[in-house]
Design a protein that fits this description.
Layout: E1 2-8, H1 14-20, E2 25-27, H2 28-38, H3 40-49, H4 61-70, H5 74-96, E3 102-106, E4 121-126, H6 129-137, H7 144-152, H8 157-162, E5 166-169, H9 174-188
Parallel strand pairs: 1-3, 1-4, 2-3, 4-5
Helix pairs in contact: 2-5, 3-5
């Protein structure tokens, strides 16, 4: 199985690009959302670590935002509870798709959480800051302070780009992105 990991800035279009590959996608953001909604153990651990913010199950986005805004160190506490659960989901996904030729990994903190394997194919998604900000502002619960706190946990983009095998310059035009994806797949699947 070939693992293709998409990396880049928050809002660069990793999820948009991941769907164009036509192979099973592991989306870490979807995994996190599911964990907050369905995993009561995670809620209880969060409530124990940061008791003033988490009132009732399921974990609510507003509670997460408030916890991060009040104390930027809370994001580390939240991550320490949630990331092991995302790893479990990733293992299940990889096992379920072990017969697939290719899988796509849409994991924002792929490098930061040391999830890469030697043979992984890394694709850096590059977008203009102007376009990224425009897209992020459309998201429900957009908060510039949260965005800044999340970016603190990410490696600088130039390091991610340097450690990638391919770069897709994403201008959010489907036909151009599809051509880039097709070219990459052609090279990988030779």
């Amino acid at each position: 199985m070939i693992r293709i990991a998409l990396v880049g800035c928050i809002g660069s279009g990793k999820t948009f690009i991941s769907k164009l590959f036509g192979y099973p996608v592991f989306n870490a953001d979807d995994s996190v959302a599911k964990i907050y909604l369905k995993n009561k153990k995670v809620f209880l651990k969060l409530k124990k670590k940061i008791p003033n913010f988490f009132k009732s199950f399921p974990v609510k986005k507003e509670e997460l935002i408030n916890a991060i805004i009040k104390n930027k160190n809370n994001i580390k506490k939240i991550s320490s509870v949630v990331h092991p659960e995302v790893r479990k989901d990733l293992k299940i996904f990889l096992k379920k798709n072990s017969k697939q030729k290719v899988v796509i990994l849409d994991i924002p903190l792929f490098f930061e959480n040391k999830l890469y394997k030697k043979k992984d194919v890394i694709v850096f998604i590059q977008s203009s800051n102007k376009e990224i900000l425009k897209r992020l502002k459309k998201r429900k619960n957009f908060n510039k302070l949260i965005l800044q706190n999340l970016k603190r946990f990410q490696l600088p983009l130039n390091i991610k780009k340097r450690n990638s095998h391919y770069v897709i310059k994403n201008n959010f035009k489907k036909h151009l992105a599809r051509k880039c994806v097709k070219d990459i797949l052609k090279k990988i699947l030779l």
